[in-house]
């Protein structure tokens, strides 16, 4: 990002910027803090195991020749040694990344959205986001409908169009089937970091519950 491209914000306006990678970028908290100390931060998080598979699925769509997920996930599979330096896995260690942000911003300036809840109850999550931003609850359940073909909620009618709008083809893709043993090992790997994250945020995202069942994206 070019750090001088943020537009000036006039009275009564809110400037929003969305770059998921900032959450895991060294130096981002410091630089953002030096730009605007009272900025509000919204972080969307989902089960780190599903997140890793989603990340891998995105890369796979661009580079079909990459090794299998099960290969990339381990430094040594026989020893069960997870490769935490693989970015798809490292990003999901939310507690680690949050720690850097907490050096610069208080928790009160942060809002965490559950990626799972966002799918199940988009209006509920949007209500919380609007409250956090100090906005009137303008976006409500009237604006969403569940699109059976897409398998996700979509917008009924955006402002600038007369037709419903779903997110693009690259969002909500079917994930490849991953060896259940690898999934189990990853859940075990993340458990302490998830618990740390729940403590730091004061929010329990209930990712352990999914361990026994299917994750929202493992529809295949
Ligand atoms: N309404 C709706 N429609 C489609 N997809 C939805 C929706 N709400 C949440 N999701 C989930 O968003 C996931 C993709 O978001 P990303 O974080 O990859 O987006 S971004 O590229 O970083 O902007 C995407 O992950 P995948 O399922 O792995 O593709 C979805 O599970």
From TrEMBL:
| Record: residues binding 3'-phosphoadenylyl sulfate | 46, 54, 171-175
Using the UniProt record, name the top-level EC class of this enzyme in a single word: transferase
Protein name stated in the entry: Sulfotransferase
A matching Pfam family: Sulfotransfer_1
Q: Where is the Sulfotransferase domain?
A: 35-191
Q: Which GO terms describe its molecular function?
A: [heparan sulfate]-glucosamine 3-sulfotransferase activity
Q: Record's InterPro entries?
A: NST/OST, P-loop_NTPase, Sulfotransferase_dom
Could you confirm whether the keyword Transport appears in this record? no
EC number(s) stated in the UniProt entry for this protein: 2.8.2.-
**Keywords for this protein:** Disulfide bond, Glycoprotein, Transferase
State the family named in the UniProt similarity comment for this chain.
Answer: Belongs to the sulfotransferase 1 family.
Question: What are the disulphide bonds in this sequence?
Answer: 154-166
Annotated TM spans: none
Q: Which organism is it from?
A: Electrophorus voltai
User: Domain of life here?
Assistant: Eukaryota
Query: What PANTHER family does this protein's entry cite?
Result: HEPARAN SULFATE GLUCOSAMINE 3-O-SULFOTRANSFERASE 4 (PTHR10605:SF11), HEPARAN SULFATE SULFOTRANSFERASE (PTHR10605)
């Amino acid at each position: 990002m070019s750090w001088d491209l943020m537009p000036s914000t006039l009275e009564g306006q809110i400037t929003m910027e969305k770059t998921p990678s900032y959450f895991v970028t060294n130096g981002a908290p410091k630089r953002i803090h030096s730009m605007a100390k009272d900025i509000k931060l919204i972080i969307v998080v989902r089960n780190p195991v599903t997140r890793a598979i989603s990340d891998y699925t995105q890369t796979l769509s661009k580079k079909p020749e990459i090794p299998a997920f099960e290969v990339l996930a381990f430094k040594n599979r026989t020893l069960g040694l997870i490769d935490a330096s693989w970015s798809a896995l490292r990003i999901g260690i939310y507690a680690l990344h949050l720690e850097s942000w907490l050096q610069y911003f208080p928790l009160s300036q942060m809002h965490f959205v559950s990626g799972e809840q966002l799918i199940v109850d988009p209006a509920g999550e949007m209500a919380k986001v609007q409250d956090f931003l100090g906005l009137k609850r303008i976006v409500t359940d009237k604006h969403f409908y569940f699109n059976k073909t897409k398998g996700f909620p979509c917008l009924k009618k955006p402002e600038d169009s007369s037709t419903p709008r779903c997110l693009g083809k690259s969002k909500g893709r079917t994930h490849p089937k991953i060896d259940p043993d690898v999934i189990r090992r990853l859940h075990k790997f993340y458990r302490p970091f998830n618990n740390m994250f729940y403590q730091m945020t004061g929010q329990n995202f209930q990712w352990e519950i999914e361990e026994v069942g299917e994750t929202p994206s493992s529809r295949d």
